[in-house]
Amino acid sequence: MNFYIHKIQLWFTREDADHVTYEFEPNKVNVITGDSSTGKSSILRIIDYCLLAEESDIVEDVINESVKWYGLSFHMNDTDYIIVRDAPTFNAPGQSFYWKEETKDFPLNPFSNTSRANILENISCFAGVADKELKISKRKKLKLSFRNFLPFCYLTEDIIAAMNTYFDSKYFASKDIRDNISPCMDIVIGKDEEREQQLNIEKSTLEAKITREKKLKEKGEKEEQRYKEALSTIINKAYSSGLDGINFEKNQSYNMKVLYDAANKFKKSYYEDQDVVRLEEVETLLKTTNGKLYRLRLIENEIKQYNEQVDQAVDSLLPLDYLKNQFQQVLLYDETRILIDELSRSLQSIKKNNANHQKRILPADFQQRYDELTAQKTQLSAEKEALKRIKSQKLDFAKYESIVALYNELRYLKPAENKYIGDEALQKLQNEYEELCEIYERLSIENKKCVNRLNEIILEYYNNQHSITSRYVQCKPRYDESRQALVLYNPISQCNVRNVGSKSNYMFLHLCFFLGLHDLILQQEDSPVPSFLFIDQPSIPYYGGQKETKDGRISDDDAIKLRDAFSMLDKFMSRVHDFGSKKNFQIIMVEHATVDYWEDLTNFKTNYIFTKDDGLIPERVSKYYK
Predict the structure, then answer these.
(1) What is the pLDDT of residues 405-458, one digit of tens each?
(2) 595-621 in b/e burial notation, b at 16+ Cβ within 10 A?
(3) Which helix (H) or strand (E) holds 164?
(4) What is the spatial distance between Cα 241 and Cα 262, in angstroms, rounded to a whole number?
(5) pTM
(6) Secondary structure of 115-150 in the HEC alphabet?
(7) Closest CA to 390 of 286, 273, 263, 281
(8) How many CB atoms lie within 10 A of CB 307?
(9) How far apart are CA 520 and CA 455, in angstroms?
């Protein structure tokens, strides 16, 4: 994204204090130098705050308490814009925004005319990321904004000489920015990591499906073989049972019908035989005869039992008559006589009633009928036994049972269940898989080329510097995607150097990385990364502590290294000019070193020198807050 800052403006809370403006130029290394604690590092905080930071890190003392509005005038993709934002209050970021397009000039008295969300959407749209999303998880996606790409433009004092930190994620309050630097880095260098991962998942899924179908095919073939063998066994048994005249086919339903019809035909031929029919008639007659004999025996037994009961009733009266006739003299008591008389009268009544029940006799032809039925039974039984012997000779039960058993065996034989999609469909899947593998390989190669291209450009800057310790001259810098850091690879030991020693070495590695990254970005047609880099004090490794002399100067060796660092920035800006007028780039650098370190460099411009008496907040304003 073609981007550079025109100016920063501060409106003060004191009505009698005029605003202050700091101007910058494109295609230059704009330097703000001066004493410490003069507000140099707050320049980046103000820039980020105006670029819609979620929170404010602007120093409260003197700066925030003095400022009413912060303004940023910038150029983006051939158009000028201004953003003005009210100062934070009680550490809460301001929510009043002034936004205007196609102008560099600030309003005399800012006022709120839009919202943060509107400005964020506008700039994101201009940066070409308004419709871009990052897939964070299976169900969650992150809508990108231009702020997701600002970590590639801030080389802060906290990381410029750090060992393994190349992006100051802590500088950003938004978790969406901090946690997604790596996927945004892929977008920046042109690497489609998300698509590569998606293709890899699709490839693995399709591969697993093909493997599953091959197993189903193998299982189906085994099941089919088992079924054929079982069916063949049944058919062979059928032929052994004398069904060789029947045609069997592979169709199970057809074969079941064959056996069923054979059994029925066998049964029909048997049951239509005259002797078999006669046997059934004889068995029916014999059953009827036995029934008649049973009923005759039942009548005979009933009559016999009735006559026995009559005889028993008569005999039961004899004991009482005997007692009355023989023992009259014994009956001395009236109670006894009364009892005997009562029993005598009751028994006489029974005897009189029983006289009316004469014994029953069987019909005169009963015995004749019984004998005839008995003879008929004997005759039928003999005929039945004779017919059964004839039947057993006519019906081969073993053969019939064999047919029925084969039918049931075939009935319960489970046909081969094959869920296999078929050779044609499998071949189609294999073709899709091969095509997907080719796409994946091409994309994987292209993604590796993106990283390799970045490493090649970084190597150019690494080879052009002369200040990293000489023992690492043979090493090659490589961007480690997993660590999000630059590592030095030693081709002799064939491993990465874990620690390159001094902060000076790490400062140069950071410069090589950021300059190489923006060099690559400038070679792209469109990029969401602003063509802007803020660098906070490359001299950090050399100032402070024992390295600094009593007069505030650094050693000659460190001075040479620092000039080498500034020379790298100057050469980078010369390279920017080679891209032509359509490409712009801007570096804003705050420094503690003095002007003489860069005054002879073509692309450097000393914009402001801050002093303790007159820093970011002019003395005419700051004196009221001291």
Answers:
(1) 777 877 777 777 778 888 999 999 999 999 999 999 999 999 999 999 999 999
(2) eebbeebebbeebbbbeeeebbbbeeb
(3) none
(4) 11
(5) 0.70
(6) CHHHHHHHHHHHHCCCCCEEECCCCCEEECCHHHHH
(7) 273
(8) 14
(9) 10
Q: End-to-end alpha-carbon separation of the chain, Å?
A: 42
Return the residue matching tokens 């945004």.
Answer: 184
Phi (first) and psi of residue 405, to 5 degrees: -65, -40
Task: Please say if the pLDDT value at position 77 is more than 80.
Answer: yes
Residue appearing with tokens 């500034």: 566
Whole-angstrom distance, CA of residue 124 vs CA of residue 153: 16
The answer to whether 532 and 153 are in contact (CB under 8 A) is: yes
pLDDT digits (tens, 9 = 90+) for 341-382: 776 777 667 666 666 656 778 788 888 888 888 998 899 898
Q: Which residues are paired to 5 by β-bridges?
A: 74
Tokens 């003197």 identify what position? 62
Task: Count CA atoms within 13 Å of residue 188 on its CB side.
Answer: 26
**Residue 412 buriedness (CB in 10 A; 0-12 / 13-18 / 19+):** exposed
Contact status, residue 40 vs residue 622, Cβ threshold 8 Å:
no
The gap from C-alpha 378 to its chain's centroid, in whole angstroms, comes to 87
Q: What is the pLDDT of residues 313-330, one digit of tens each?
A: 656 655 656 655 655 555
- Kind of pairing between the strands at 604-610 and 29-34: parallel
Q: With H, G, I as helix, E, B as strand and everything else as coil, classify residue 98.
A: strand
CA distance linking residue 58 with residue 49, whole number of Å = 8
Instruction: Give the tens place of pLDDT for each residue, 149-172.
Output: 999 999 999 999 999 899 999 999
Query: Can you read off the two tokens belonging to residue 617?
Result: 């907040």
Angstrom CA distances, 343 to 320, 339, 340, stand at: 8, 6, 5
Decide: helix, strand or coil at residue 53. coil
Instruction: State the number of CA atoms in the 13 A half-sphere of 363 facing the CB.
Output: 8
Amino acid at 46: I
Identity of the amino acid at 250:
K
Window from 146-155, 553-562, 595-604 with minimum mean pLDDT: 553-562
How many whole angstroms separate alpha carbon 474 and alpha carbon 283? 115
Whole-angstrom distance, CA of residue 494 vs CA of residue 444:
24
Contacts of 586 (CB under 8 A, 6+ apart): 3, 4, 5, 24, 25, 26, 27, 28, 30, 531, 532, 533
Q: Is 191 helix (H, G, I), strand (E, B) or coil?
A: coil
Distance between CA atoms of residues 351 and 207, nearest Å: 110
CA–CA separation, 389 vs 481, rounded Å? 98
Angle (deg, nearest 10), helices 423-464 and 556-578: 130
